[in-house]
Specification:
This is Pentatricopeptide repeat-containing protein. The protein is built from six helices and no strands.
Length: about 110
Amino acid sequence: MESNLTSFCNKFLITLSSNFVSHTLRSLTNQPHTATRFFHWANQQPNYSHSLHSYLSLIETLSFSSSSFDSTFFQNILEEFKCRKFRLTSAAVNSLLRSFAGESHCCCNVQANI
């Protein structure tokens, strides 16, 4: 998959954006393994670096599948937040709480007061 994506992007001069990566990850809710592979592939592309939004999209996508919930993986992602010095907005905290609570599919959007 990865080599095909790289070839396709190079052939059509596609440059990844955080919005594109986030949208793609959210479209893979029934395919957690593919979402994780895409996330890692995207991170290796030239001139691309994951944003807070793309990390949150991956966490949300993986939270839909109980088989993909790995607390060590999530701890590593939170450590990356810290290393990259991402500033967590109230919307980001809300998204994380919903994902960790297993309610990412919930359509309610209660804002956290931080």
